[in-house]
């Protein structure tokens, strides 16, 4: 296993993180997976044996059941691993059962701690933007949780670029804890994070964890152009996230992944994950699975180093357009780009 430093912290995390989205399977989460304690324990053991030290969950995954299962499975070895959780999403019918108000965050953190059977959460994510709660209130509540020792580091997830930068500015202004990382969706099929989120991470020293790095399995090579949706997959069950805006481009990408995988004697999934691990600012990929075989295959991506030519093939087939103002910057500011700019523009350097 490889370990990378998380943002501007001193924390080392494995480049693959185990996601627990499939734990519990209550309500709509059953379309993705419904692993109970025994099955979850086998998968967690598999990840720990491979060197994974970071486990990702959220209070809304099966409405807390995923946290409960992870807490039971890690009981007795909690100090050997890192746990992330999240708050913000609606978890009840009440008017204060969502958001990042002081009331909601402190209550949900304390509930998560009980379910996880721990006294602290290593990384606590704001799961989504809340435009109604003032940032100074959110950051003050997180400051309280950090001061009390209930949270070690804070992060954001699914924020836009201006949301991230505004949050960092308020942290600096008020001398509050600063986001150390963000968790985003970023794949060969969905590269729009390169417009703002990756440049911000490189420039501001934020770690980047990627959720659903295989586009919910669509980049695994098991789904092909014109083929039937595999039985047992989340798509077969009716799951529609993340959205695919250009199906033909998706299948073009999959074809290149399968070709490179066949040439290297590895799976298409390993190739897709290896490409992501080579992108600017990436710290760790959050992987999930229905069985041990899927995790064991994903682990192979850690040691897979793509050649320059292979990387270019993948980058070219998945390229995104330089929308405004980036095409204008490319034409008139390229000689004064910083590393943050190059997180987007480097792929266009030879054009």
Short descriptors:
8-stranded parallel barrel, 351 residues, 12 helices, TIM Barrel, globular, two-stranded antiparallel sheet, alpha/beta, 10 strands
Question: How are the strands of the largest sheet arranged?
Answer: 3-4-5-6-7-8-9-10
DSSP strand count: 10
CATH superfamily heading: NADP-dependent oxidoreductase domain
Element order: H for helix, E for strand: EEEHEHEHEHEHEHEHHEHHHH
Strand and helix layout:
Blueprint: E1 3-5, E2 12-14, E3 16-19, H1 37-49, E4 54-56, H2 65-73, E5 82-87, H3 102-116, E6 121-126, H4 135-147, E7 151-157, H5 161-174, E8 179-185, H6 197-204, E9 207-211, H7 247-264, H8 268-277, E10 284-287, H9 292-299, H10 308-317, H11 326-332, H12 339-345
Parallel strand pairs: 3-4, 3-10, 4-5, 5-6, 6-7, 7-8, 8-9, 9-10
Antiparallel strand pairs: 1-2
Helix pairs in contact: 1-2, 2-3, 3-4, 6-12, 7-8, 7-10
If you had to describe this structure to a student in words, what would you say it looks like?
- This protein has one domain: TIM Barrel.
- The chain is 38% helix and 14% strand.
- The chain has helices at residues 37-49, 65-73, 102-116, 135-147, 161-174, 197-204, 247-264, 268-277, 292-299, 308-317, 326-332, 339-345; strands spanning 3-5, 12-14, 16-19, 54-56, 82-87, 121-126, 151-157, 179-185, 207-211, 284-287.
- Helix 3 (102-116) packs parallel to helix 4.
- The mean pLDDT is 94.
- With 351 residues, it is α/β, with parallel strands linked by helices.
């Amino acid at each position: 296993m490889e370990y990378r430093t998380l943002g501007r912290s001193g924390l080392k995390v494995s480049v693959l993180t185990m996601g627990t989205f499939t734990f519990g399977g209550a309500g709509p989460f059953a379309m993705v997976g419904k692993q109970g304690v025994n099955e979850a324990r086998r998968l967690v053991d598999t990840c720990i044996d491979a060197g994974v030290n970071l486990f990702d969950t959220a209070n809304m995954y099966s409405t807390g059941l995923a946290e409960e299962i992870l807490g039971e499975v890690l009981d007795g070895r909690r100090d050997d691993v890192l746990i992330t959780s999240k708050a913000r999403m609606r978890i009840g019918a009440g008017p204060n059962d969502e958001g990042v108000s002081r009331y909601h965050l402190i209550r949900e953190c304390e509930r998560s701690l009980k379910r996880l059977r721990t006294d602290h959460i290593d990384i606590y994510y704001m799961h989504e933007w809340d435009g109604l709660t003032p940032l100074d209130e959110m950051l003050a509540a997180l400051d309280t949780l950090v001061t009390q020792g209930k949270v070690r580091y804070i992060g954001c997830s699914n924020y836009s670029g201006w949301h991230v930068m505004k949050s960092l500015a308020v942290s600096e202004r008020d001398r509050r804890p600063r986001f150390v990382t963000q968790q985003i969706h970023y794949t060969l099929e969905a590269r729009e994070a390169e417009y703002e989120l990756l440049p911000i991470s490189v420039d501001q020293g934020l770690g980047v964890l990627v959720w659903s790095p295989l586009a919910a399995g669509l980049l695994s090579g098991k789904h092909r152009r014109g083929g039937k949706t595999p039985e047992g997959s989340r798509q077969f069950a009716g799951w529609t996230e993340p959205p695919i805006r250009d199906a033909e481009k998706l299948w073009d990408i999959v074809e290149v992944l399968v070709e490179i995988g066949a040439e290297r004697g590895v799976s298409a999934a390993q190739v897709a994950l290896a490409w992501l691990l080579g992108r600017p600012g990436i710290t760790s990929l959050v992987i999930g699975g229905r069985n041990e075989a899927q995790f064991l295959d994903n682990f192979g991506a850690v040691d897979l180093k793509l050649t320059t030519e292979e990387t270019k093939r993948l980058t070219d087939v998945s390229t995104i357009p330089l929308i405004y103002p980036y095409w204008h910057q490319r034409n008139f500011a390229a000689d004064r780009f910083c590393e943050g700019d190059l997180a987007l523009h480097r792929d266009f350097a030879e054009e």
